[in-house]
What we know:
This protein has a ten-stranded mixed sheet, sandwiched between helices. It has helices at 6-14, 163-174, 197-203, 208-225, 243-254, 286-294, 321-334, 352-366; strands spanning 52-53, 66-70, 90-97, 107-109, 116-118, 121-126, 129-131, 135-142, 151-152, 154-157, 182-186, 228-229, 236-241, 261-265, 301-309, 338-348, 370-371, 374-375.
Amino acid sequence: MVRLSSTTFLICLAAGLDPAMAQPPAPSAAARPPRTPPPTRDPNTPGYVKAKALPDGANAPINKDGNFIIGPTYKPAPEMIAQEGVPQGTIHNFTMESTDSKFYPGIKRAAGTFGRPDPADPKKLIVDSGPAPYTRRVAVYVPKQYVPGTAAPFIVGADGPDKALFMALDNLIAQKRVPVMIAISIGNGSGDAQGSQRGLEYDTMSGKYAEFVETEVLPLVEKQYNVKLTKDPDGRATMGGSSGGSAALIMAWYHPEWYHRVLTYSGTYVNQQWPYNPETPHGAWEFHENLIPKSPRKPIRLWMHVSDRDNLSTGDAYHDWVLANEKMAKVLAAKGYHYQFVFAKNAGHTDRAVKQHTLAQALEYVWQGYKSGRAK
Length: 376
């Protein structure tokens, strides 16, 4: 067996590939060494933020900022289960062809390849990627209570369709715990990490993805489904998991005139960006390293989660998901942001059980202060 250097192993993981792909073909799947699972991190590790440990089965309070520890067991919240007598929203589905997009005509990493260090500059990756068309799926949730023609608050979600979000909104809207909102759940353009369409959309530190949504997605939603989406940034939210989570914050960070509310699971606040950008050389790691601490506070309210067994690659200092989210909590607190950070014990990356347990109250927290289109 050929042993991979730590750098090669990191690049494989960052590119979303099995490190075994960098070796000669194995005789059988059984001969392949299993990928080492991430270690379990202790939320009380020195250097991590001080967090309040909650009783097992509890959720963080919806009206409190700060850091909380939950787990180790999880069960779906009642709001994540269909309830008798609760009005159900209508879910519309449509597709978008990349050939019609001015922003994202489509790319794809060459099959069987992964990023490799640039000999001229090890900070950069050389990725074999080329044009590739794709079809994007979009799901639009319109609550039963929506009055056609009225400007509605809304939430944009990554990696859609997100049925869990639609279920939570049915119950929360019926109980008047969140505003009557529309949800636009946008599928990614395929692939993952550097050289892929998904990586280009979600890991790029710029306003481009938000501009794509604003210019090419939202007008289609309004035209096709007889809805009106608010222009008030306080009535607009973003959400996502992993790179979709970092994309959610990227949207609000680069366009706070459009979005004020953000919800992320296992946010990829690490260095996944490609192509290399000298303005943000460490990708989304720059959020807690430079951007948030060195910028005036923006009108963003953020709920975020990480798990004790979340992703970790030790090939460099910029691929520890737990540390990245811990650092996010620290700088958000220092700048006086309204944020809530939830550390989940006995859980993994974008853990489904954690989402089923927390999403309803996370949505309530994110929408705190929203009244008739104006924040308190």
